[in-house]
Write a structure and sequence with these properties.
The chain is an alpha/beta fold and 430 residues long. Helix 2 packs parallel to helix 9 and helix 10 packs antiparallel against helix 15.
Length: 430
């Protein structure tokens, strides 16, 4: 059987659903293909910063989530070597932007899915191959499905995660693999996480996603966080085993994003398919939502300009504009996230020097000033509100900031993110 579609999105995760919602707000009905039998919610929760809330505002769904979760006000960071505890305030929310909030991943997926119809999302759709051919002078993506169905589409968007088939079809290689903490979601729930740079667990057990959760729990306690504060161990020992998962973390090297092929004609990628990153800044979900809004705007404006038609040559240019707008932005976040994890590691004298020797000075300066306003003033000077993220500015930020320590880097990135995304989203007229 053969089907022809206007737009196909591969993957019904956060980015895939958000992109479909963004396109629908322009009148474009995309088809989302998901290999799982239902909405997938790998990972119990995620943290969204102000940039993500701006994107959700643009998608018209933020009001459904705002009242469910309270903003985080500070980070409490413990040095397991010395026992020193540092309290790092987060920037205050302004203009109803939402602040930094941790939420159930499934709640976000369901809110996005509610904006779509059952005909928009198709489950149990497994792709066996992706190819292209010229039809009437235009490049068309052809998807061969496991059930032998053939889907032809004018536009193909890969939102299928770190092992993206669409990314591989563009020539992007597999991303490479990488502290712990817990974040309150509500008055009765905590989101627990542990990230390690070891490729395998210490001891005699090779932990995988299929390892029984009780064994994962035991190994986490005995090998990974035995020196963590007692309160963390108490949370681990009392967690709900059915919610415990183990997965390999992946990130794409910054130069692979800068020089890699992120689009070909009317085929492109978004979210983790484009820019998987380490979790140290909690920006994976936020950047995916940014992608969805910018890509939806690019294709949507072209659709409206051409009388509600998707002309392949015009869509290809719109996708090219999307890639140009996102390439340097996500490269900067990937780099910052990696560097913040590097600073937190403390496994070498250099890392400990960067992490510990400068942080007292930074925290003292932060406590004596309104850090959010000071940082934003600098950012406004570097980024006019009408401009997009510029690579030169990215270089200045990341050469200047890392020696000051993780906490300051986090505050700078969050403030930069808020200003930057606002300049991208402010002219959206859904």
């Amino acid at each position: 059987m053969e089907r022809v579609e206007e737009v196909v999105i591969v993957g019904a995760g956060i980015c895939g659903l958000a992109t479909a919602v963004a396109l629908k707000r322009y009148g474009i009905e995309a088809v989302v293909l998901e290999r799982a039998e239902s909405l997938r919610a790998t990972g119990a929760a995620l943290t969204l910063g102000s940039n993500a809330w701006l994107a959700l505002d643009a998608l018209g769904v933020s009001h459904k989530l705002h009242s469910l979760y309270s903003p985080l006000t500070k980070y409490v960071i413990t040095n397991v070597s010395t026992g020193a505890v540092q309290h790092v305030p987060l920037p205050r929310t302004e203009g109803g932007l939402g602040g930094t909030k941790t939420m159930h991943r499934k709640a976000l997926l369901e809110v996005l899915a509610e904006e779509l119809t059952t005909k928009n999302i198709r489950f149990s759709c497994k792709i066996t191959s992706i190819s292209t051919e010229d039809i009437n002078g235009s490049s068309t993506a052809i998807l061969q499905m496991e059930d032998e169905t053939i889907i032809k589409t004018k536009v193909l968007i890969g939102c299928d995660g770190v092992h993206s088939q669409v990314a591989r079809s563009l020539g992007l290689g597999e991303p490479g693999g990488f502290n712990g903490g817990y974040v309150p979601i509500s008055d009765t729930e905590l989101y627990l996480f542990l990230a390690t740079g070891n490729s395998a667990a210490p001891g005699d057990l090779d932990i995988t996603a299929k390892t029984p959760p009780e064994l994962i729990q035991r190994y986490v306690v005995e090998h990974y966080c035995k020196d963590f504060p007692p309160v963390y161990l108490d949370v681990v020992n009392h967690l709900e085993l059915s919610t415990l998962t183990w997965a390999s973390l992946k990130f794409r090297l910054p130069w692979d994003v800068i020089f890699g092929k992120l689009n070909k004609g009317t085929i492109t990628v978004a979210g983790d398919a484009m820019h998987p990153m380490t979790p140290d800044l909690g920006q994976g979900g936020g950047c995916a939502l940014e992608d969805a809004v910018v890509l939806g705007r690019s294709i949507g404006n072209t659709y409206l300009k051409n009388g509600n038609q998707l002309l392949p040559s015009e869509v290809a240019q719109a996708i090219d504009d999307y890639v140009k707008a996102r390439r340097w932005r996500v490269t900067g976040v990937i780099t910052a996230s990696f560097l913040s994890g590097w600073v937190q590691d403390g496994s070498s004298w250099l890392k400990r020097l960067v992490r510990d020797s400068k942080i007292k000075m930074v925290l003292h300066a932060i406590q004596k000033s309104n850090h959010a306003i000071v940082i934003k003033t600098v950012v406004y000077c570097l980024w006019p509100r009408s401009s997009l993220w510029h690579p030169f500015v990215s270089s200045v930020i990341f050469v200047t900031v890392p020696p000051l320590g993780f906490q300051y880097l986090l505050l700078v990135l969050q403030s930069c993110t808020q200003v930057q995304v606002y300049s991208i989203l402010q002219d959206l007229s859904y």
